[in-house]
């Protein structure tokens, strides 16, 4: 066999280097050299690419060329007959024999010797080259380090040389020797050792560095033991330039650098290595912790923790160790089992600092200066400096412990001079007391602010507030709330507050209170727990204390706090706390009696008038003072407007805002922030979407949005997205043709329009009495700026001029038809559109024109997105019924020859396939138990309450045979119950109806076109249900006229600018139509029931037209244009959803939609088109028999039923459209009656009490 040539050695060297690079991660991850060797030995077993490496392929080829002939010869010998007996039969035996003989051959021995000699030379060459490269790199690094100093001490000596983020290799004894020889000879022996340690830290594996670290820790501890360094007294200082102190600081600094960097790589090593590092640190820091009993001025020992606090004052090392669960588990276990003294010392230091603050509360202490000078390079530190640094370090350590469950389990802790152990609550109280003694105003943004006591405490408290469990255990405790509100209670009681800076301290308190109130548990604590003691030992809630102070600040009744400009800042801070309460339904319920909205509005009006009196700056005049004064006033005015605006976060709060008269200004302010994309507040996770939706649900709200310019901007933005797009930006990638009816780019403005136009009152205000432009020509640059313009350009596309004015006709018109479909889900909105614009006629005409042969009657409908959408809208508005009563055609097309199987039409009547078979009726079920009860019972006062028996019977029938409660049985039940209740003095809420209309006045009464269309809709539905006779139109028209006359006598005389407040009730009276159908078209019986019902509280909620602008509510509320079903029913639906269905509540918040809008939609039209007729009847009967509060529980039950769909549709951004367009599939009132009774048991006292306050809802 020939020897390997020199070029073969070079090739082998290259191939080996390539192999090592390929498996470099495996080698570097090895814990030791032995482990690395094991990796290489078993590489074939663990690496699937082993045989693909070029080095392995080279060895394969070399072995083949060297031993190929030997293997062939031995194989022939083994297979000859004369030797068969020696090896036996079988393939495996043959291979074993050939292998054994080949390894015993001379050729094999020569090959191995040659390969071994060559590989030794190759490996030595690689090692020498590697060492040369390493030494060159280290030399360059050291020269760089010499050229710059990064020491924070006065000697400018950098010994750490810590660059622990570098990758490391395995360091050998020879390399250590080279490192030792190249150390700087000009340094002292101690400094050279430290420099050597630093080099090792940056270039050695953890199994080496942890030994160096632990030995370094023991060295530091031995120095403290031998030198017995003294802590400076009040009159002395510690000079860190002294050699012994300087050397200690260098060692501790090197350790601290390692502590902070080791977390980046110790997870790759066994836990025992990490545990040794942690335990070595704790052992050093726990050295001699016996100074707690020392009184001020006495001598005590200087300890390692004091110097560590100077170097790492905010305990960054500990924070990093606690960050990852891998190390945090070990840290907490060691603290609990062996080193709890560290936590005791930290806690003792905080207590000591707090006591010092209390002793010197009227003096200027030096602790502030310690914090202020901590970032300044200096060499002399006083006792106060070291104490303060140790306090900051201790507070940061304790704060980090508190945010973890196992950290909090270390408490309670026993400390000296305290009989009882210090609990979590005690520690928080101590921190708050420290904050009281050293407040720092938020306006101070100096670089030293982060080390002030107040900033440190606030940082810890903020961390606790952000974590639910931490806040529950540490903050939501009576002693903590008492401590926070103690200065507030003292102010309210007229006592002197012992605070250094009352305004600054109270601002910090308000900040903490706002963060607590922003959580559900904290809010409940403030609202419902009477755990605070006021004057005369009276116990009250935190909410009462906070609101009381806020009202006094607004009224400027606290002279001690109203002398400076900071009073407005303080007042704004406490209003913000109140805002976290009143922008929730439950919070507003508690705060409403205080009249906070009136006080804020009064302050705003006063400030607004004062700001107008500030003189306008004149050129050349001194304007500094007046300009600053004007800026302060404008800022305060905006703060008050912002506070008023947040009342609009809830339905009842919106009514309160409207009553202040500032709704227009608040909405304009909101619009200015909305256009700037500003956050609602630091505590609010979402934008103004929910608030806009809440406001848009009411007539005054939508008018304010329109006058602010919000709607104009929304329409222009939509038009720009829909018609203009972004094609002028880039044509590199063509815009894809949209596949959905609403392109994703237009989805957001589409959903905004849906939310904006959800309420029929909003549609009436924006479109009422507004004709379409229907121009003969539209320029391409002519953009719509209002909702009526959008309808003209996108929906009512009934001329060539409109078609030609659209760049994307099909896409834009489809968008308009989809918007129309959603609008028409609200029956009153549809009736307005139909009465003013003849929507149905227009759609039918477009369908007639959209045929293959328009000039003949034989043409077929052209199937496209527009014809499909028109067909859907026509069926939706023409057929009335719930999910089991009508069939809405889908919008999607199918593949194949017949893409659309549903018949289109261009004239009435509709194809019968869109109307399902009516449900089976139970009109003559006279043998039911409820019928027997109604026919046999006598209304006597001596027996058990008739209503209670009736309610039990109703519950029994509803849970067993609910379908019986329709037809005559239901009519009899309603008639009997209403007659009974209206005849009871206790149940008669409004004055009994005194109505007797003359025939002449009835005949002269004119019904509006909207009411006429509503009558036609009702007749179609009644005819489908087989409830009405052919001549029912006369009776229903007569009934509507009687009711219109009766209700007109119940309304206030109104001169409002709101369209919905003029000419009676806006829309059709769907409740009257429902009653007419229940009574099977009996006009006299229907009218009698309605008149009797009008005296009951229930009528104010299930009969919206009855309470519209009614004389039975305060005049200002009657003129507001906000119905009780919104500010009462919908308000409590939202409150109960948050408590009972938090996922649904959160889904609405995320979508920017509100439950109140859907409740208003459903209840205004008595659930027509959303549930089947039977369920509509059960809704009416349940509210009449069980009580008006069941209207709230009914809506909550529906949301519970829809919860899975709501959560799914929220993710796909379809919630608004789904709730408005889709019927409520599968909902049965009877299935949820028990759930509603549970809600009644929990909430009736609150809900029904507030319903009965309808006569005075804003007081």
From TrEMBL:
Annotated segments matching region Disordered: 135-159, 919-939
Biased composition (Polar residues): 147-159, 927-939
Pfam families in alphabetical order: BROMI, BROMI_C, BROMI_N
Gene3D superfamilies hit by this protein: Ypt/Rab-GAP domain of gyp1p, domain 3
Ranges annotated as biased composition (Basic and acidic residues): 135-146
Every BROMI C-terminal Rab TBC-like domain range: 823-1254
Domain BROMI middle region stretches: 159-805
InterPro entries: BROMI_C (IPR055392), BROMI_M (IPR032735), BROMI_N (IPR055391), PHAF1/BROMI (IPR039156), Rab-GAP_TBC_sf (IPR035969)
Cellular compartments annotated: Cell projection, Cilium; Cytoplasm
GO biological process: non-motile cilium assembly
Domain BROMI N-terminal: 12-139
Keyword hit for tRNA-binding: no
GO terms for cellular component: cilium; cytoplasm
Keywords (A to Z) from UniProt: Cell projection, Cilium, Cytoplasm, Developmental protein
UniProt-listed PANTHER family: PROTEIN BROAD-MINDED (PTHR13465:SF3), UPF0183 PROTEIN (PTHR13465)
Entry function: Required for high-level Shh responses in the developing neural tube. Together with CDK20, controls the structure of the primary cilium by coordinating assembly of the ciliary membrane and axoneme, allowing GLI2 to be properly activated in response to Shh signaling.
Name of the protein this chain belongs to: Protein broad-minded
